[in-house]
Structures are given as structure tokens and as C-alpha cells.
């Protein structure tokens, strides 16, 4: 009965705007990297085997192991229904409500109240909540957060964000190895060396900046989409709004050191973690709290009229 589910066959509200943005983001980032690798190959002709091998190897590794890498980096460890009955029970209820396969369930031992989902597809997906989140939220609020995260899995935007984010990192790695491998062959006396020293880091910086902006634009939209889909699935937008308000308020009480450790993974989290002096707020991966609450207020009014 469930063997041939498509991305729109769960009961999560479909989002054509999200699908269009995911397709266009992957197209432009793919195009950007074809051009980037092509320019590196043209500039560092002697290093082309190293560049191609590294680019291909890292991309394949990231695609197949992205869920494990992300989960490990954020401290997630899988838990059984016996170890976390409330968390598993909430995920079971939501998956039955959404008519989707149950992902693996994990807990991260962190006081930062948050949750995230990873996985390149539904079969390899994982949903994780931190101990800080589980301790602070009421059952209805927790279900709202988990519905938000499960919608990321259902819409497959987790995989797109993971791959798109990784390509920015790849730009820096390829450039470093390309420079090292290329200069070994070009030689210090070559007149092109001075040009390459300036040109390649500059190209890499431009590629990184464009990929960063593309992923940020997608990330903000996908969070609003997940709020909407989660609220419509549970029929309780007020519970999700309460969880958002509580989690955001609690962030101010978390030690700066813990927030700094969480910041690199903000694109995956339910709510962004910022240390007080962070410049990340300016280019946040998430919409503002006000934007998210305003949307949930509109959904609440619509459901009330219905």
C-alpha cells in the first residue's frame, strides 16, 4: 500500500513554491560548480586528475553519508522506544497521521533546546531532539516541533540543503588542493604563478558567496514551509507557535560556549542558535520569529473559519 509513495503522497500539505526553489537552487549550484571546476582545470592543467578525483569523491561521499555525517557532528545517538517512549510515541502518531514511513529517532545530549532532521531520502532519514528541548516542552509543543521536522523529510528539502551546503565547503577544499598540486607542476618561476595566487582564491570566494546566498534564500523559505505543513498536519498552529516562542526565549539563557558550538549547524535546526556577538543574525538561515508567528497566526485564523 505504501511502497510507491511520491514526495506529494504523504498528508503533509504540498508546497509547489518549495519544489520550484529546490530545483532552481540545485540547478544554479550545479552550474556554478561545473564552471568552477572547469576554470580550475583550465588554470591548473597539470593538476586536473587531483581536482576531478577530489571533486567527484567528496561529492559522492557527501551524498551517501550526509545523514550520518550531520547526525554525528550534532551529537545525535539513536534511541529505542524503551529508552525514549514519549519521543517515539509522538513520532509514531505523526507518521501515522501523515501516512509516511517512520524515520530513525535520536536524541542529542545538549542543553540547547532544538531539533533537526537529516537524510538523503525517507528511507535514510533521522529525526533528532535535544535533551534541552525534551525537558522544556509540553507534549503538544513537542509534537508541533516534530511535525515541522518530519515535513522537511516528506518534502525532501533536507537532502537538497545538505548537498547545497556541502558544495560551498568543496570550493575551499578543491582550491587548496588545486593550488598545491598545480604549483608543484607549474613551478615558482612560472610567470603565471603570481596571477594564480590572486585569481584562484578570488574565484573560490565568489563561488562560495553565491552558493551561500542561494542556500540562505532556500533555507528561509523551507522553514516557513515546514511551519505551515506541520501546523496544518496537527491542526494546532498555536502549539507550534508556543514552542517557537519558548525555544527562542530559552536561547538567551544558554551559555555562549554551547551556542557557538551549535551555530555551524543552524541551517538544520528548528530554531537558530546565536551567541550574543554573532554576526550570523544578519544572514540567518531562518526567517525572524515575528515572520514565523505571523504565518502561524494566519493559519490559526483560517482553521478557525474552516
From TrEMBL:
Keywords: Cell membrane, Hydrolase, Membrane, Metal-binding, Metalloprotease, Protease, Transmembrane, Transmembrane helix, Zinc. CDD domains: M48B_HtpX_like (cd07327). Belongs to the peptidase M48B family. Binds 1 zinc ion per subunit. It is found in: Cell membrane. The lineage of its organism: Bacteria, Bacillati, Actinomycetota, Actinomycetes, Kitasatosporales. The keyword Cell membrane applies. This is Protease HtpX homolog. The gene is htpX1. It is a multi-pass membrane protein. Its EC number is 3.4.24.-.
